[in-house]
Amino acid sequence: MIAEVETQELTEMLKSFFGFEGFKGNQEQIIKSILGGQDTFVIMPTGGGKSLCYQLPALISEGTAIVVSPLIALMKNQVDAIRGFSNDTGIAHFLNSSLNKSDILKVKKDVLSGKTKLLYIAPETLTKEENITFFKEFKISFFAIDEAHCISEWGHDFRPEYRRLRPIIDMVGGVPVIALTATATPKVQQDIQKNLGMLTANLFKSSFNRPNLYYEVRPKQNVIKEIIKYVKQNANKSGIIYCLSRKKVEEIAQALVVNGVKAAPYHAGLDAKERAKTQDGFLMEDLQVIVATIAFGMGIDKPDVRFVIHHDIPKSLEGYYQETGRAGRDGGEGNCVTFYSYDDIIKLEKFMKDKPVNEQEIGKQMLGETASFAETSACRRKFILHYFGEEYDAKACTEMCDNCRYPRQKFEAKDDLHLCLETVLEAKERHKLKDVINILMGTLTATAKTYKHNTLECWGQGVESDKDEKFWQAILRQTIVNGYLIKDIENYGLLRLSDKGHAFLKKPVSIKLALDHDYNNTDKDEDEFAAAGGKAGSAADETLFALLKDLVKKTAKLKALPPYIIFQEISLEEMAIQYPITMDELTKISGVGAGKAAKFGKPFIDLIKKHVEENDIERPMDMVIKSVVNKSGLKVFIIQNIDRKVNLADMAKSKNMKVPDLITEIETIVLSGTKVNLNYYIDYLMDEDKCNEILDYFKESSSDSIEEALKELGENDYSEEEVRCVRIKFLSEYGN
Predict the structure, then answer these.
(1) What's the rounded mean pLDDT across residues 484-499?
(2) Which comes out higher in pLDDT, residue 667 or 175?
(3) For residue 151, is pLDDT > 80?
(4) Is the torsion defined by CA of 679, 681, 687, 692 positive or negative?
(5) Burial 570-604 (b: 16+ CB within 10 A, else e)
(6) Average pLDDT for 164-193
(7) Of 5, 131, 464, 536, which residue is the least packed, with the fewest Cβ within 10 Å?
(8) Which of 416, 396, 405 is nearest to 478 (CA)?
């Protein structure tokens, strides 16, 4: 390392390398710490300038800095950025699985020659024997562990390989380490320092408050439609839309493109070239929106992302905070909109069922915090900052979250808070939030029986006509956020009183609280929405529908054509929901192309416009959303009849079809991404064992060919109809 550097000298180097006039926040102290050979731990929110904290010291120091980074996209972006400040491309390299042999040789040559000041590597790359040998051949200035939260099981993006870093660093040589993360609760911070052997490291923790970000949670209804509306209303503004599944990423990206938005998908299932092209297109503003899994955004230095939308609630508040942190990194507008249904939490809990018990316990606690954030009626900014161990006065939010901008009515909660604290104390401060609610409600669970809660004085005291479990859940959550109770995260989330809580019990004072939002039963099935012609939750205007049908008949008679040639009924029904009043809007109705609109459309939009004006109708949205899905009448018929559990033979007969042809139509529906439930018909066709044998075959086979399946399973034992129906079940359950 180098001797202590004066502030002026360091500022001149900053200006020389990066063109910045001065440091932000703790940057200067952090850089001086690592230059002085001290282990350094940096907790700095996204947009605070973490990368500079190791990039500048690396450029100044003798030797090469090894930067451990979790994602190839992150490495590429960082290397490109550093090369942009230098005439020598060899100044920064990455070493990962995306390189071929000649690329690797080039990297190693530049490193050994002393050209390379920063070498980005994946944790898996660092642990390879040949690379450990290579690292001993040149001088390492220091190790930088980026996204250090990946070390902790309590972090939102746990990576087991990160936990093997310390022994490797020790093998390579005794050099200082700088660990950096944008999200770390007190528990995660302790975990990182312990695992990296950095308990005595210099700690630099910046405030987690991002005052320019606006936080909003919306009920999860017709989400794709709402997302397209939002993006259209924010035309020419860059945004990221996060989804948990690749399938949903593709679906939303396609829907945006169809509706005239420059958008692209980004997930690990795409090849490296495609991902790099998408990333570059977003940075160069050829694309307005990226629809992505969480694989996108880490280390992406785009300062003017104006909105971040979550189609699905993230698995943890750390994940939420980091992903929303991509917005407004330049200090400008940054809107964070999340669509939430409690059903999402239930789905995420189901995904954890095959994990070890301790991982499930950690995962459930993290999901519980996420649900609490989504459902709270308190200031969302205060909630997030409390989670990261930072005190915050909600008055300072200045309406930069939906709960502060549109506050819910509050009520006097002094007696309710007193009862909650008394209950926690009487239960000897050794129970979780759910157990405390059960005591208040007098619910005799296994835990209540074991600890004889029904003998407590507070047993059932929370039962009143207007107070249910949701009520007490809201009170307890706000009691925790306001600092009266402490949730002991290291001890399974058990509740205990804080000093503030004890003080309140001695001298109760007035406190105003609000009830939480209720997001139960909000999760509409978007596949059903699309299959039903985009009409989920909507009803056609019967008067307008009748007028449109009459107009079709008149037009058909005038043109000497059958009525369905003009517009099919499914198109008329959608017109009676969406009220298109321009040619452009009419072309976005299913079954209406530009040619048909030009040929027949004018009298129809004139009729709709007149109807809207005469009846003072408020149209459902500013623009009509064009669906990607082909909403044919047959498809809707099939889905509706499967929902009604109609026998396929009867269904086929009513449409004058053969059963194999009907199954082909169902296969098309499922392959397009719509989920169907044929269990009732499969149960009629075969016994459970037979079904499971076919399912097992498709689970293990690399081919979904019916011919191959019949050959493997035995054509004498299984019929084609049986195999095709179970394949539909397999595709629907595992693919959609």
Answers:
(1) 83
(2) 175
(3) yes
(4) negative
(5) bbbbbbbbbbbbeeebbbbbbbbeeebbeebbeeb
(6) 85
(7) 464
(8) 416
The sign one gets for the Cα dihedral 48, 53, 59, 64 is: negative
Task: Give the residue among 603, 656, 612, 605 at the shortest CA–CA distance from 634.
Answer: 656
Whats the size of the chain, residue-wise? 736
**DSSP secondary structure of 218-280:** EE-SSHHHHHHHHHHHTTT-EEEEE-SSHHHHHHHHHHHHHTT--EEEE-TTS-HHHHHHHHH
Nearest to 662 by CA among 715, 728, 590: 728
85 touches 52 (CB < 8 A): no
Residue 725 CA to residue 670 CA, distance in Å, equals 11
pLDDT tier, 286 (very low <50, low <70, confident <90, very high otherwise): very high
pLDDT tens, residue by residue, 186-211: 888 888 888 888 989 999 988 889 99
User: What is the rounded distance in angstroms from the CA atom of residue 265 to the CA atom of residue 290?
Assistant: 6
CATH class, range 213-341: alpha beta
Structure tokens given for 613: 């004006």
In which residue are the tokens 């930069």 written? 400
- With cut-offs at 50, 70 and 90, classify the pLDDT of residue 635: confident
> In the Cβ-directed half-sphere of 533, how many Cα atoms lie within 13 Å?
26
User: What's the fold here for domain 633-735?
Assistant: Arc Repressor Mutant, subunit A (1.10.10)
199 or 630, higher pLDDT: 199
Give domain limits for the chain: 7-205, 213-341, 410-514, 526-614, 633-735
Please tell me the number of Cα atoms within 13 Å of 692 on its side-chain side.
3
Is residue 179 within a helix (H) or strand (E), and if so which, with residue range?
A: strand 177-181
Q: In what order do the strands lie in the sheet with 213-219?
A: 213-219, 334-340, 305-310, 238-242, 289-292, 263-266
CATH code for the structural domain at 526-614? 1.10.150.80
User: What pLDDT, on a 0 to 100 scale, did the predictor assign at position 619?
Assistant: 76
**Report for 3-7, 71-75, 246-250: range of highest mean pLDDT:** 246-250
Asked if the model's pLDDT at residue 535 lies above 70, the reply is no
Specify the long-range contacts of residues 588-593, CB closer than 8 Å, at least 24 apart. 588/259, 588/623, 588/624, 588/625, 588/626, 589/624, 590/533, 590/534, 590/627, 590/630, 590/631, 591/567, 591/631, 592/567
Indicate if the pLDDT at residue 507 is higher than 90.
Answer: yes
The CATH superfamily assigned to 7-205 is P-loop containing nucleotide triphosphate hydrolases (3.40.50.300)
Pull the structure tokens for residue 348.
């995420």
For residue 670, what is the enclosing H or E element? helix 659-671
Give the CATH architecture of domain 410-514.
Orthogonal Bundle (1.10)
One fold for 7-205 and 410-514: no
Cα distance between residue 96 and residue 73, in whole Å: 11
User: Using the 8-state DSSP alphabet, how is residue 443 labeled?
Assistant: -
Take residue 232 and report the two structure tokens written for it: 């259209």
Given this model, what pLDDT does residue 92 score? 93
Contact 731, 673 (CB under 8 A): no
On the 0-12 / 13-18 / 19+ scale of CB atoms within 10 A, 370 is: buried
Q: By three-state DSSP, how is residue 95 classified?
A: strand
Q: Tens digit of pLDDT for each residue in 312-327?
A: 989 888 889 989 988 9
Q: Which tokens in the block code for residue 540?
A: 């056609």
